[in-house]
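Input set for joint prediction.
Command: fold jointly, output tokens.
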Amino acid sequence: MKILGFKIPMMASLLFWMLVWEVVGRLDLMFLIPPMSSILAKMGELVATGSWQNASVITIRSFLLGMAMAIGIGVPVGVAMGRIKVVDNILGLWVNIFVSAPLSALVPVLMILFGLGETTIFVTVFLFAVWIIVLDARAGVMQVPPSLIEMARSYGASRFTVFTKIILLSALPEILAGIRIGVIRGVKGVVIGQILVSVVGYGELFELYSRNFDMERFWALTILLFAAAMLLSAAVEHFEKRIEYYAGAR
Amino acid sequence: MAEPMRAPQSDDPALTVDDAIVEVRDICKHYGDVEALRGINLDFARGKMTTLLGPSGCGKTTLLKIIAGLIPATSGEIRINGRVVTGPGPERAFVFQDFALMPWATVMRNVAFGLELKGVAQAERERIARHYIAEVGLTGFEQKYPHELSGGMRQRVGLARAFAVDADVLLLDEPFSAVDEQNRRKFQEDLLALVERERKTFLFVTHSIEEAVYVSDRIVLFSPRPGRVSRIIEPSIDRSVPPDVIRRNGEYLDTVEEIWQGLRQYAE
Amino acid sequence: MAVTPPKAGEIGGARNGSSGIAGALDSLASRSKAFWVVVSLGLFFAAWEIAGRVPISYAFPTFLETAAAFVEMLLDGSLIRSYLITLQPLVLGVAISAVLGVGLGIVMGLSNKAEWFLAPVFIVLQAAPMAALIPLVTFVYGIGLVAKTLAVILLALPVIVLNSYKAVRHVNPSLVDMCRSFQGTRMQQIVKIVVPDATPVLFAGLRLGVAAGFIGVILAELLITPTGIGDLITYYRSVAEYGHMYAAIASIIAVSTLTLAGLQHVELRYLRPEKRRK
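tokens >
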């Protein structure tokens, strides 16, 4: 989109929508939509409060733990599925089922098994993120051009060397793509987990604000979460772009 | 004794021909800072097969698409039958390098597509399409889908589609580059037969020297970066003899060799 | 280190020497997908059964308990009745999202202005944890069918819009050029080339929209108010009948999986015959 000949990036249209929000908020059309400016002001306040900071620590802790597990378990499993047919045959069905199933349905089960605390949350994050990481790692490994492997073998590389120097590196773009989507799903998981458990972290805060109809703080928290999700995803994407140069030439 | 090749022209030959159906005047094309075509002046004679030949990046496909009206020129004009044209028109038909067949449509529908867009009634356009499907040797395949056909057959569908709209000028963009070698030779022979029968004007783009010499009445050689016309060659090869004889004919081989020597410098 | 080709005997050796049954199983395994589905399911259910018997938790029923509960709920009709309630907002929400979403997506695919205004909004909506917004819906729309349908739309619409818009943007430009070369009007280009070429991807987007819809429906059941399946889950949890609770949850996973698999089958069969794996 161009104004006066200057190209404006697409994400800038969000600023336009924020303006619309401000106007709608000022017109007081719905109590649900307070003006953007007051939300942003409250956001500043919120970040300074102890309760928010505690909630964030809890959230970040469970998120990182869950993601670490998801990556630490998901990537090796995906690679194994890509390299060993039997593993693929057995696990394939379940990975494909769970990657598009409504996993929130499992959270009540998790709440019974793991209680109403952080454990449930990080297991939720793990479950939300792991399936796509497995699938993409598998896809990455299966896409390694056979000629690359033959080339390495013909120059005398051992199986281990072929695996680390050729296969893993060649599969890296897909693995990172899977992690990026896994991060987004992980954020959804940490939010859903906390909202359902509702006595912990952000879930507790959401519960508090909505009970008191404190829409400004509610939106402030929501927007913070949304922004965090986008930033994380952008961070992984940045990393992806740095190795993208060889993705096309494989 | 065959006529010798025309002597090399100056760097910017403004070549006029009697009865030119396509006139290219001062065509320039820029993509940002890159100059794709510079000052192209050419005429294409009615009823003849003219080939644009050159290494990749010399702008021959760009020029073909400008003549077809698919890309706008940065400056200059194109005249067809004396009238200036700026977009696609009924007097020109384009044959695409990647065939451009609708994968969800049968051969019959693909061939009749040009007529469908014009609003010709179904029975009539199927009748015409059937005729040209036979012309390219695909009778019996009317109800097949593109994914059921080989590359060579798909290109024949593209050819039939271009003929079906009864345009005066047919523009072919490296039509045989996606076809395998064995079929490619056969296609060149079939194309010559079609040219004989249909009496239309053909503009052909290729990077194969042998192909150009084999099929063309006239060859326009391009040099790259920026694209300019460097030479015009009119091979006069006796086409009444069998194709295999032509390909061993001295004149044919000499012409190919001479062109190659000229283009060699552009090989990377 | 030279690379030596394997000797002929080495390749077939293991198989030549195996007994009749193992050999038959081996060739069945390499040819039949159904074989592996059975093995996969069997292993999972066996593991479940064992875990339930250990037991890993007082609240973890065995597979057989769950299966029995499932059959019981199926036969007494409670499962079917629940789904009739739960599926209403799903079907309604997905239908509205489909019509709205494909329409918006096509407009965004064809118009750069529309893309500039709308794409970032939907990108944010798709990446964001929408679960946070669902409780808000109840403030305005209460806890009825409307609220739940809205929850489904909140989750399904962004997915469908983004996929439709990508489908239109990725239409084969050669085909559009071909249409232009035969003097096709813009409307002809859209109707005869863009829409047909985009249709397979549009349909895939709808399938993803249905998946998102299932997520929306479950979130609605858990966050707005449990009716239908959510009701079964919360009831059986409250009376500590975990077999029934797990059976209800498993049934959701099964219904969602089977629906999506069915859609994928239709997609492959009717829309992309050339992509079908033989």
